[in-house]
Amino acid sequence: MRVDRSRLPAIGRDPAFRFPRIVRHRLDNGLDVRTVEHHTAPVVTLVMQIEGGLGSDPHGLEGLAALTADMVDEGTGALSAIQVAEALASIGGEYDVDVGADAIAFTLTTLDRFAERGARLLADILLRPSLRETDFSRVRKLRLDRLRQLTDLPPAVAEHAFVTLMYGQHPYGHLAIGTEPALRRIELEQVSDFHARTFRPARATFALVGPMSHERLRTVAAEAFSGWRHESASAVLDGPEDIEATSSSARLAVVARSGAAQSELRMGHLSARRDTPDYSALLVMNAVLGGQFVSRINLKLREEKGYTYGARTGFDWRRGKSPFALQASVHTAATADAIRDSLSELDDLRGPRPPSDKEMSLAKASLTRGYPRNFETAQQVARSVTQLALYDLPDSYFEEFVPKVNAVEAPDVVRAAAKYVDPTRMVTLVVGDHQTIGDSLVALGLGEPQLLPVEM
Amino acid sequence: MTSATLPFVKRTLSNGLDVVVHEDHHVPIVAINIWYHVGSKDERPGRTGFAHLFEHLMFEGSQHHNSGYFPPLQQAGALLNGSTNADRTNYWEVVPTSAVDLALWMESDRMGYLLPALTQERFETQREVVLNERRQNYENRPYGFALMAIAAAIFPNDHPYHWLTIGSASDINAMQLDEVHDFFRTYYHASNASLALAGNIEAARGFELAEQYFGELPAGAKPQPLRPKATLEREVRLVLEDRVEMPRVYMTWHSPAMFAEDDAEMDLLADLLANGKTSRLYRTLVYEQRIALDVSAYQNSRELAGFFLLVATAAPGRSLTEIASVIDTELQRVSDEGPSVAEMERARSQTEAHFMYRLQTVGGFGGKSDQLNAYNVFCGDPAFFATDLARYQSATADGVAGAARRHLGFDRRVVLSIVPRGQHSLALPGSELVTVV
């Protein structure tokens, strides 16, 4: 039978999917343990998430959280840094550290038969790091040199300048790696102190996901982490989310990079917190605007104008006020035009050109129909589970995600855009060839560009 | 102990299209993955970058769906992408079970009926997008030209690996629409492709759908395999100036092709020499002597030939000369003595785990569908997964040392220094200045 090519085949009914069932336990020391049975491969993932990310860096010591997170696997007990790495390799372990705004997540993936060994090793790393001066001086130097290298990388220069423009003096106002003067200031004692104050069971969530029973996963957690001492809550850190961030006013800033082949572009402002009741509406809004390939911004800048390899928008979610931003690397000659087109797209969604039925349907479908694929691997599941803890979301969150997104209507999107996206407050940052594009930027009418130094 | 296996069923349609199905019913998704056995190796000098630009055009619509490839699939909840390298071009969708028909309809339409939808305007836009991609990922990135300079130096001018897949900007600017048509007719047809389906689908249903959507398409002629030759009989020293803070050295040797003798040993050698904190060069260069910021190595094995790459970045104030000397000492030692028992044991544990990790996802780059196609296209046999694993498990310390002796000679390699602009003197002595455009 020949294929009917006069029309696309219809999409069938959405398949049923059972989201992971999370079982919670609390160890005597207060550690929040969450387990999921996940039977796809003989692989287990352990994620220890500890509250206190870059937003907990003390003022003047920006980069302390990340440096501490980097230091803990540099030797533990009798093991040197190299021997810790060898122990991880001997179980085929993949160890990864992610320093976010509000928390640090340590992820270890290994074969299921090494679950116990993996958990013990993770406990050695997190609870009993050696924190030796000789390792500290080496690790800090590597990070300082890394910072210096990053000054040649336009996206890194843009991220640094942009987050500073967004937050100013607020604790969120720097990258995880910190700044050069701060890193030079940090001493080992401060790392030890940060570790002692932050790496506490009461601040941690431990997710274990693998092809074994909840009971066994819980035993793995308990055997490795019951000895984690519960300290009194004397020196508890304030959460950066509770510190009010000042809203930026519209401005145009440039980091000059002479002869740059492209301009690294960021446009945005502080917008909503992750716990906003408008979260679902914002997800749909972002999908329409620039959160996926078929979105207004990408279609305009890439597919219609050919200014860029790709442009997107998104929220950098945090517990506190989070930036909403557009980012793209655009051809130098097209920089001003790309900014003008982007501002006009941002403005349009707030009323002049509400999302069409087709756009709404596309945005919602792309968020919901593909949702189950986010639960394929143990690592995906474990990280999702710790996200629930980070944002204080219920265990029913996964089940509720699709219906909530599907309930969003076009007026909700327009309302969310009007409330949370404001072109008149937009901070526009260009890392690019100022000499070539300076005049065209002035002609945008966003004010005289403020020249920022190349720094990290 | 559970061992890593990747079961499948394979059939070949009458038009020559290979179809491989792997069932995995854990999540209600299906991965669709198509490989065309064409890459930048099939380009000619003056038209480099063609295969990749062509890949972009595959997303612009086909005769019966004459608009963007993304919207219907995104509407179905699909994730999709494509990529081009020297040897092959792949396209994939990961769709909910409900949209398998849609994805196969669309993949088959662009395999069979692309050209009527290919307009000059779409071609021009994608040319600009690709030039932007090149600027973003190569021209505007520190050390972004390294591999271009290396490929050009180690492979002769007419060798298919002499240029990178992204191509040269002037070649991309010179391309004409009629050349795109020729390219499609030569390479994009059933007998030069392989389709893999993995996920929540019964094998029988997979074959039925493959036949339904692809069975009507013409077979086309199978392109002739290429048989290039490349040797290097001396050490070539080059220097490239770039907008970078720290000098970096790249050492490159010819090495075995993919799955050829010594390929797995060279891969193991890369890890034990320079990957991760357990590696020898990390220990000497970064951990103990602190003269380098990072070090890495890679056995880049491709279909027609391979190259082995070793890279290290100098710490501030340290010279590439002292780094190169430490590297050479270690290369000599591993050639003479081979890996230790502990190193081989760790390598085996890591190999076993990494093959297992590869079985966790059905789709996307590196997922099970992509691996089945890789083995099918390069070895003619999707069952090669098991053979591939066995190559690593049976490797010995002597074998690794022998591979190092055979392939990593000091007198037949390309050594490229990348130094900050105007600081030619930071390069290794005797390096010839090169430029890349």
Commentary on this structure:
The complex is a heterodimer of chains A (456) and B (437). Chain A has 456 residues and is α+β, with helices and mostly antiparallel strands. Chain A has two domains: 23-230, Metalloenzyme, LuxS/M16 peptidase-like (Cytochrome Bc1 Complex, Chain A, domain 1, 2-Layer Sandwich); 251-452, Metalloenzyme, LuxS/M16 peptidase-like (Cytochrome Bc1 Complex, Chain A, domain 1, 2-Layer Sandwich), CATH 3.30.830. Chain A is built from 16 helices and 14 strands. In chain A, the strands form three sheets. A six-stranded mixed beta sheet of chain A has the order 1-2-8-3-7-6, sandwiched between helices. In chain A, strands 11-12-10-13-9-14 form a six-stranded mixed beta sheet, with helices on both faces. In chain A, strands 4-5 form a two-stranded antiparallel ribbon. In chain A, a hairpin with a 5-residue loop joins strand 1 and strand 2 (32-37). Chain A starts with 22 loop residues before the first strand and ends with a strand. The model of chain A has no long low-confidence stretch (mean pLDDT 95). Chain B starts with 8 loop residues before the first strand and ends with a strand. Chain B is globular, with a radius of gyration of 23 Å. In chain B, strand 9 (292-301) and strand 10 form a beta hairpin. Chain B has 437 residues and is α+β, with helices and mostly antiparallel strands. The chains are: A alpha+beta (456), B alpha+beta (437). The interface between A and B is large, with 77 and 83 residues.
Quick rundown:
Chain A has 456 residues and is an alpha+beta fold. Chain A contains 16 helices and 14 strands. In chain A, strand 1 (23-26) and strand 2 form a beta hairpin.
Q: What would the keywords be for this entry?
A:
A: 456 residues, alpha+beta, Cytochrome Bc1 Complex, Chain A, domain 1, 2 domains, six-stranded mixed sheet, 16 helices, globular, B: 437 residues, 12 strands, 40% helix
